[in-house]
Hints:
By secondary structure, this protein is mainly β. Helices cover 8% and strands 46% of the residues. It has two helices and 18 strands. It has helices at 3-9, 262-277; strands at 29-38, 43-49, 54-58, 66-72, 82-89, 94-99, 103-105, 114-122, 127-131, 135-137, 142-151, 156-165, 174-183, 186-195, 213-220, 231-233, 241-246, 252-259. Strands 3, 4, 6, 7, 9, 10, 12, 15, 16, 17 and 18 form an eleven-stranded mixed β-sheet that branches. A seven-stranded mixed β-sheet has the order 2-1-5-8-11-13-14, with helices on one face. The radius of gyration is 18 Å and the shape is globular. Its main location: cytoplasm. Belongs to the UreD family.
Amino acid sequence: MTSTARLAERQPPNTPGAHIPDEHPDGVRATARIRAAHNGRVTTLPQLRNDGPFHLRRVRTDRSAAKVGIIGAMSAPLGGDRLTLDITAEDRAELEVTTAAATLALRGPTTEAATYDVRLTAGEHASLRWLPQPLISAAGSNLRQTTTVELAATARLVLREEQLLGRADEESGHLVNRILVRRAGRTLLDQHTAYGSPEPGWDGPAVLNGHRAVGQLLLVDPEVEARHEPVLLREGSRDGCAVLAPLAGGPALFATAVAPTASVLRELLDEAHAHARRK
Length: 279
């Protein structure tokens, strides 16, 4: 059994006691898979499995790495949908995955929550970049999104996720988001956030302070310089801010940002990324 296969086997189940929404007969059930492998010279893509709203396309690059773009083939996630995206970079593979457009969560035929599970696995000396466009939580939607990451000790990861709480001039839907990262079998990060009604105080001064764009950036790299003190970017600005801090469980830096708009949010996360890579 390869080290990547062992990592995939260790992916943790749903949190004990967590509410799993009942299935709805009108909901979409879909699992798309991407698998990247290194053939000794370049990274290949032996598996691209489309399903449901996930339409996978190879993107041409001038490097030895592989890149995949995800195109939405239908409106999703809607209430009652159960969507899974399984992405694996095997030992020494270099893979980047992006989405062609923002993901829009809508209400659909039921008020039951939709689920969107992203599972990322990177083997020894692999490099995995997960850089989707933002997730938009439209008014009336109900979504539980979970990103689960399993990394080998020598794997590298760049993960950037962004959430926009409502479209222009509308309220946010209900969005529960979890990022769970394990490195070499040990938990590196477990962040749980919840926005929109009926969550208490989610848009108050202690959380978003009226902002409607929030994002996360995680860099895991054996060569990264894990600073001992957190760095606050744009402190005191009315146009959002970000904090970049080391994680105790490994060579990793994690940034969280809030902003009034998607464009400002991306600027903050790009600034955090550049700061993290600064020698």
